[in-house]
Design goal:
The chain is an alpha/beta fold. The chain contains 13 helices and 6 strands. The longest helix is centred in the C-terminal third of the chain and has 19 residues.
Length: 293
């Protein structure tokens, strides 16, 4: 069913769907605001899985329908309509990106942000990486493997520190340091070798920008940029996938798993830890958001 392209039409859609609220999220196909107001959306995205699980924990009594509309700019435009009171019975849930750093953060009831740069940053805690591998691995997870996963994870975060600083710094000029369409260049994942940050690629990228390394480091320190929570989410997620895949090949007879399967398990393991309050910072973050709805 399509609705007229009006704010009242969007506000009233929940009545036709027998739900309390419609929740718009990122992921999948990107739609314009006109498309969204005319009822276009998709239902298959990891963003929906992530936010659905959070709503199940923190707002379980409310009936909602999730709609993935892809475009962050469209989501922000809808969020602005919520802020102005032009639409009701609608929520927007989206990645934080560098919105707080760049004063683009919309603070109003019904607009939710991830704690980290994206939901991938929230999900891929080092303990979650270990949990995912332990679930796929046939047998009891060897202690030395769990320890090595943790070590490589921490080393990766440390090695991309300057890249994340530069990414945050350049966001002030509506630019990116980590290539959004070729971010895997920043990962070295050669056959039969442990995945690591591609330090050479990062150095080459640094040489191409007109700002000094000292300027970037000073900025990152001054604004307390975190190489884990502020990292481009797809980069962190892909590294974790390569990390899990590497150890599956090295110590396990289990067949390789698709990235989608690994990510789906990762979300489940994250939610399990969040439910048990094993990630207190994120638990507080989301509890505060949902308590206002």
């Amino acid at each position: 069913m399509n609705f007229r392209r009006t704010s009242s039409g969007l506000s009233n859609q929940h009545l036709f769907l027998n739900v309390d609220t419609i929740v718009f999220v990122e992921g999948s196909t990107s739609y314009s605001k006109d498309d969204v107001y005319n009822g276009k959306f998709t239902t298959d995205s990891f963003d929906i899985k992530f936010w659905h699980e959070l709503f199940s924990i923190f707002l379980k009594k409310k009936k909602v329908q999730f709609r993935a509309i892809g475009s962050k700019s469209t989501l922000k435009s809808i969020a602005e309509d919520i802020e102005k009171g032009e639409i009701t019975n609608v929520y927007v849930a989206m990645d934080r990106d560098f919105d707080i750093l760049n004063f683009r953060h919309i603070q109003t009831k019904g607009v939710l942000y991830t704690y980290g740069y994206s939901w991938e940053n929230d999900v891929w805690q080092p303990e979650v990486v270990q949990d995912v591998f332990g679930t796929i691995y046939i047998g009891i997870l060897p202690g030395e493997v769990a320890e090595r996963i943790f070590t490589l994870y921490k080393q990766f975060v440390n090695d991309i520190n300057i890249a994340v600083y530069a990414d945050a710094f350049l966001s002030r000029f509506n630019r990116s340091f980590i290539p959004r369409d070729k971010h895997m260049r920043c990962i070295k994942f050669e056959r039969d070798s442990e995945p690591t940050a591609n330090i050479d690629t990062i150095q080459n990228l640094l040489e191409k920008i007109r700002f000094s390394k000292e300027e970037i480091q000073d900025f990152g320190s001054r604004y307390t940029i975190d190489p884990f929570s502020d990292c481009y989410g797809h980069l962190l997620s892909d590294f974790c996938y390569f990390l899990i895949s590497y150890f599956l090949k090295k110590v396990s007879k289990s067949p390789s798993m698709s990235k989608d399967c690994v990510i789906s398990i990762g979300i489940d393991k994250f939610i399990n830890r969040l439910t048990k309050r094993q990630i207190p910072t994120l638990n507080t973050h989301y509890k505060n958001y949902f308590s206002s709805l």
